[in-house]
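Q: Can someone sanity-check these two? First one:
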Amino acid sequence: MTDSESSQSADGARLLTPADVRRLADRFGVRPTKTLGQNFVIDGGTVRRIVRVSGVGAGDTVLEVGPGLGSLTLALLPHVAGVTAVEVDPVLADALPGTVAEHAPDLAGRLRVVAADAMRITEVPGPEPTALVANLPYNVAVPVVLHLLELLPSLRRGLVMVQAEVADRLAAAPGGRTYGVPSAKAAWYADVRRAGAVGRNVFWPAPNVDSGLVSLERRDAPVADVDRREVFAVIDAAFAQRRKTLRAALSSWAGSPARAEEALRAAGVDPTARGEALGIEEFARIAEHAPPKEV
C-alpha cells in the first residue's frame, strides 16, 4: 500500500503521510525543536488508533494541545463536533487552517485554532471542550494535563500520548515506585490508566524514548472541607523526601514532626507510612487535619 493510498479516509479527511509532513515542514520553514518538544506524528495508523481509543464522538468538542502540522487534527475532525487546537508555535498555528482546508475542505469549519501556551491559557474560546486528545511534548506533559483538568471542568475524558515513563507515572497506583506527585494529583481529577504503547518510528524526528497512551476519565474530587491547593501542598511535601516516613516528610508542612504525627493520626494515617502508600483520599484527609498556622 502506498503512502497516498494509506492516507485516504472515507470520512472526509486525507491524513498526512510521511512525505506530506516533510513537505509541509519545508513549506513553512519548520525544523522540529527540542525546546518545544516537537516530534511530529507521521503514521496514519497511529492517529486513527488515538481517535478510536479516545472514544470521542459526534457530540464532542475536542481540545487538542500541540497540533503541530495537523496529523492528529485531521484524524479527529471527521468524528467530532469540533476541534479547538492550542498551538504555542505561531508559525504552526497560522499554517494549520490552510492544511485542514487542503486535506479536509468540508471539515475546515470544525476547526478553531488558538495561538497560545497551553500552560498559560485562562480560558478557551468557543464551545466548552468535552475531551482532551493530544500528542503532548514530553517536557510539559504533566503540568499541561493538570492545568487543563483544573481549568476546564467540562473535560469529561481524555487520551494523551506522552513519554512512556511519564505515562507510567501518571497512571501509577499507590504502592509502587513509579507512584508519586503526578499520579496522586491526577487522581484528584480523574481515573487514569495506561491505554497502550507507541513506538519511536511513528514520529519525525524519532525520539530517543518510547511513548505511551494515557486514558483519563473525569471523576468527582474527594469530598473534603479543604481547597485542592491545600491537598496538593500535602502531596508535594510527602514526596519531597519520599524515603522518609510521613511523620518526618510532613514536619515542615505541619510545623514539627510532633504536629505532623498529630495530623496524621487524626486523619487515620499511620505516621510511619510513606507517601507512596497513600491514595488521594488519604491526602485529602491529612489536609483536613492540618495544624493551625502559628502566628
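And here is the second, same format, sequence then C-alpha cells:
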Amino acid sequence: MLSGLLIVLLPLVLGYLVPVHQARAMALINHGVNASVYVILLLMGVSLAGLEDLTSQLSRLGGQALQLFAVISVLNLAGLWWLSRRLGLRADPSQVVPGAPTSKLAAIAGSLALVGVVVLGVLLGLAGGGLAGAALFAQTETLAEWVLYALLALIGCQLRNSGMPLRQILLNRFGLAIATVLAVTSLAGGLLAAPLLDLAWNEGLAMAAGFGWYSLSGILIGDRLGPLLGGVAFFNDLTRELLAFVLIPLVIRRHAALAIGYGGATSMDFTLPVIQQHGGVACVPIAVVSGFILSLLSPPLILFLLSL
C-alpha cells in the first residue's frame, strides 16, 4: 500500500521541486493542468459506461453524493459559524470594490462544463463498449493513470510557483484557523458518512478530503476506488462550490469566516472574485491563504488515507 502511495506522490513532489521563472512556461503549465483534468474526467465517464446496470449505478451515485454532501456541509457550516463568532471577523462594506470583476456565472458555467465532459465520456463509452468491450475499458484505466501522474506533477509545480511564501501562510492566523476548521469538520463528516455509504473508515475520510477541489478528488478517488466512488467524490465537491456561490453574498457581511471557509480549496481561485466583490479587499488574503492550505493538504491526505 505504501509503495502505491509513494508512486502517486512522487510526481507531486517532483513537480513541487521545479521552480518556474518565465510567465510563458507557467501559462503552459496552467493549460496543461486544465487539459489533463478534462482528459481524465472524460476517461472517468468512459469507465462509468463500463459498469453493469448503469442506470441503477448512476442513481446510486447521485444518492451517495447527496448523503455525503449533506453530512459534511452540516458539520462545515456549524464549525465555521462557531469560528465566525470566535474570530469576530467582519467584512467592511467600505472596502467592497464597486463593480469588481466577478466570474461567478463563468465559474458556474465552467463547473457545469466539467459535468458535461463526464456525460460525454459516458456516451462515448456506451458507443464504443459494444465495439471493443472490456479491452476499451482496460485501456481507459491505464491511460487515465498515466495522465493522473502528469497532472500531479503539474499541480506540484503550480503550488511551488503560486507566489505564496510559507512564512506568509503561517502568520495569517485567520486563514490558518478557517482552513483548520474546514478540514477537521469535513473529515468528521466523512467519518460519519462512511457507514451510510457502506465504506471503510479510511475511505470515508478520503472521500471528504477533497475540500471542494472536485476535479482532483474525483480523479484520485476514482483511480483507487473505481469510477462510481470517483463520481461521488466529484459531485460532492462540485455541489460545495455551487452552493458557495449562493452562500457567500448572503452571509459574508456578518459571518465572513463562514463565507470564506465554506468554499474550501476554491476560495483561492473560483470563488475568490465573489468573496472580493461582496467582502472587500481585506478578505482576499485570508481567502487565498485558506484555499492554498487546503489545496496543499488535499492530494497527499487523500493518497495517504487510501493507502491505509
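A (reply): Looked at the second one. The chain has a mean pLDDT of 81. The first helix runs from residue 2 to 16.
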